[in-house]
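Example: Glycoside hydrolase family 5 domain-containing protein.
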Amino acid sequence: MLCRFAPLLLAAAACLSAAANAADLMAFWQTAQYGGNSFNRLPPGKPYFEALHAYGATWVRLAYDKWSGQQQDFLIGNADEYRGLQPADLATLKATLDRAQAARLKVVIAPLSLPGARWTQNNHGRFDDRLWQDPKYAQQAAAFWRDLARELKDHPAVAAYNLINEPAPEQNGGLAGHADLATQQAWYQQQRGGPRDLPAFYTTVIKAIREVDPLTPIMVDSGWYGAADMFAYWPSALADARVLYSFHMYEPYEATSPRNLSRRPPYSYPGDVPVGGKTQHWDAQQIARWMQSPLDWAKAHQVPPQHMVAGEFGCMRMWAGCAAYLQDVLDALDHAQIHWAFYSFREDAWDGMDYELGQFRVPDVYWAAIKQNTPDPLVRQPNALFELIHQHMQPAVQPPVGKN
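Written out as structure tokens, the predicted fold is:
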């Protein structure tokens, strides 16, 4: 008789195991976790994930929007109107998650596009503001995430859903980047309840996810492209207790970004750099002060420190100040004891922040591979620049030399 019920027993056991895995995910985030960002044009292979894990990483923030899909927008199909997940794209994503799981890495899924918000680099360089103008796209985004959570909730590699990378409802809504707190709060009061209300948008999407997946943690970026000072206007934390709050750290952007390499003379670090229309002296103390803003907001709203994440940080590897900047950011993160993921690991579409390449120009074969959409051919070598990150990840084993 037991054999007759064996399939049911096995199915029940599988469900219990999946639920236990999801329940344990908040425990994963109870201690500081260190990782890297994967924004590659090709789905990473197992050696890629193994190399990141060997450096000491425990998680990877995975964006898939550069991958070739069934239709215009990978997985979504068409960001102009969401009608359902694309099956072949979903299979590609799941296979990639399987490879990360085999390499013992947790994964945070981080879409760059949502319905009504096609990623700028996939939109001919134009910022897509439709999501922040028309409420129908918030409902489509919620439907997309409900569908995706239903498919991924039991995958053992998935550690969180990062609802959208670097949202910017403020950009075309009349709020300047890095505005003072009073200006931010006044702007939010005007927008509250409307399509540019970022906390309300997140609440809508989270509600949809929780209809099919009550347990998997959810990660939300602050506004104005994840700026560290853009949680400040939020009047409260989100109601869901399984939310992680993420900010990105590239300030002072005028110094860390590609355009500084062509400036004559470039901004130096430490040094005086304009941010938000005001010139400030940027050094280790200013870095720590800047990143204290989201931590102060969290404390004021009873968000535990272990729910805070620096989801991206970095600088142009060929910039003279990059090593000193990375060291000061990492030191501040260590002091705060929060999660972080550097940008980026072995990116096969852009070399600007691929620190394993050191501070030298990449050979022509790198760019030829991009044009031909073939795998990145470069062999990475440990170097002093990447060693800064490696040391802060406290690896258990030495990293391998290798390709993606």
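The mean pLDDT is 93.
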